[in-house]
Amino acid sequence: MTAYDDMALRREMVATCRRMNDSGINQGTAGNLSVRNPRGFLITPTSLPYDRMEPEDLVQMAFDGTYEGRHRPSSEWRFHRDIQQARPDINVVLHCHSVYATTLACHHKPIPSFHYMTGIAGGTTIRCARYATFGTQGLSDAAIEALEDRLACLLGQHGQISLGKTPAAALALAIEVETLSRLYVQALTLGEPPILSDEEMARVLQQMKNMSYGQAPDLEGVNDTARPKPAA
């Protein structure tokens, strides 16, 4: 990676961190972000507010746990490293303490398929990882377990993690997880909401997969899809 490319990525990471706070899913120095690069991964430093963070403040880490830079890495660097190693399908790990997701996490309550958009995380539920002390290998192990075949999870009595191929994708997913968490908390005030069946969620997930590949959703095969009008 050239110095120019590295700096472009660092600027994108800082901008994403600031958007985390601007969107309301993170506060103060909570939360962290990592992005895979050819030397391992870049990660946000510990205890540095995002509004004071500059591209040069990001920490370069290798998968053996060594780091370079003028700051120490985030105290959560272990789960960033371990998720990046375990999940070659993603490049970005985003962690935040968004209010409603953390509310559910404090009750160790996963998000079921009460709404079809639960499928955006890759399955019929958004799991909640068992509790482990922050910054420990135990938390890393719990997160990887909860993220199996998923792009997001809650962390017991802690917060949420969202994954993506780009910082923008991981941030968009984290915001969606927070929105679903808020909807679920509000739905629970009326009682346990009905849950969509696994069969329906399988259809939802196929629709989402089709759309991610740029195809129009057409599960019934009737070819009644939106299409450009032919030129005159």
From TrEMBL:
Entry GO MF terms: aldehyde-lyase activity; metal ion binding
InterPro entries registered for this protein in UniProt: Aldolase_class_II_sugar_metab (IPR050197), Aldolase_II/adducin_N (IPR001303), Aldolase_II/adducin_N_sf (IPR036409)
A Gene Ontology term for the protein's cellular component: cytosol
GO BP terms, alphabetized: pentose catabolic process
All residue ranges annotated as the Class II aldolase/adducin N-terminal domain in the record: 11-185
Superkingdom per UniProt: Bacteria
Keywords linked to the UniProt accession: Lyase, Metal-binding
PANTHER family, per the entry: 3-OXO-TETRONATE 4-PHOSPHATE DECARBOXYLASE-RELATED, FUCULOSE PHOSPHATE ALDOLASE
Protein name, entry field: Fuculose phosphate aldolase
Natural source organism: Aureimonas endophytica
